[in-house]
Amino acid sequence: MYYIGYMNLLLCAGLQSVCDATQDAVCYGALGGPVHLQLMRNTTGHELNFKNEKNTIFRIRTNGKLAPKPPSQRWEVVAGNGTLIINPAESTDSGTYRLEISGSDGIIKHHTVQLMVEAPVSDVDLSISCSANGERKAWCSSNGDSPQYSWSLDGRALSGADADLSTDNQTVLLKGNVIGQLTCTVSNHISTTSISRVLFCSGQLL
Ligand SMILES: *[C@@H]1O[C@H](CO)[C@@H](O)[C@H](O)[C@H]1NC(C)=O
Ligand SMILES: *[C@@H]1O[C@H](CO)[C@@H](O)[C@H](O)[C@H]1NC(C)=O
Ligand SMILES: *[C@@H]1O[C@H](CO)[C@@H](O)[C@H](O)[C@H]1NC(C)=O
Predict the structure, then answer these.
(1) I need a surface site. Which of 41, 76, 137, 201 has the fewest CB within 10 A?
(2) 59 CA to middle of ligand 1, Å?
(3) What is the distance in A from the centroid of ligand 3 to the CA of 111?
(4) Domains within the chain, CATH numbers bracketed
(5) Long-range contacts, stretch 160-164, CB < 8 angstroms, 24+ apart
(6) 115 alpha carbon to ligand 3 midpoint, in Å?
(7) What broad class describes the main subcellular location of this protein (predicted)?
(8) DSSP assignment, residue 168?
(9) In sequence order, what are the residues at sequence separation of 6 or more whose Cβ sits closer than 8 angstroms to the Cβ of residue 54?
(10) pLDDT 10s digits, 86-145
């Protein structure tokens, strides 16, 4: 048996955030969204060479000019504040980038930025089945990259006294007469979505 509940969509506040890429960093971006990477803080008198494993992708010259320019229309370099804005982000933008920044003192500093573009969590579904022997099983599913599942009952974390979790955390087997509002929260690095359903059937009924 399946029960109708409601869905609560929490759009990630981090979608617009600026990733600090001024030192070695792992930055996550939402597929289709804007990704802001701050590459350096003080652009005055500095030259920045933005490379992949082999080649220079773009270079910000000391005079603020771009040569070469980024290869994609989706990549906007704001030389004045040392920011790269990718919009919309695509999975092909994911990768490991090397930055070489040289100052007026001639010293070149290197750091690495790993960019991972993830599809936000979507199509979250929570189904609860009550079998004839009174066993209740809740199953949460979703699309999106690297989803992580967590559960709560009436707003507190689900404990071992309430339920047994499967190793992937996607399925819970509810114990005894546990009732209340069950919430499944699915998150990845760039988004979070929750769905709740009221547990109607008791373990002793049906
Ligand atoms: C920025 O870099 C320039 C050149 O190296 C330097 O003269 C200036 O003081 C720096 N500004 C800040 C705020 O660090
Ligand atoms: C840099 O400038 C661009 C264009 O004005 C702006 O959209 C962006 O928010 C700025 N980023 C930072 C980190 O100041
Ligand atoms: C399952 O949840 C626990 C507790 O929140 C967490 O420590 C563990 O990493 C999760 N496992 C998976 C495969 O997501």
Answers:
(1) 41
(2) 19
(3) 32
(4) 17-118 (2.60.40.10), 120-199 (2.60.40.10)
(5) 163/138
(6) 24
(7) membrane
(8) T
(9) none
(10) 999 999 999 999 999 998 888 999 999 999 999 999 999 999 998 877 779 999 999 999
Tokens 């070149």, residue located: 108
List the one residue out of 179, 177, 153 whose CA is nearest residue 165.
153
Structural tokens at position 150: 């967590």
Place of tokens 């087997």: 173
* Cα 91 to Cα 80: distance, rounded to the nearest angstrom: 27
pLDDT of residue 79: 94
Alpha helices, DSSP H, located in the chain: none
Residue 193 CB contacts under 8 Å (≥ 6 apart), including other chains: 8, 9, 10, 121, 122, 124, 142, 185, 186, 187
Q: What does the block give as tokens for 55? A: 């080649």
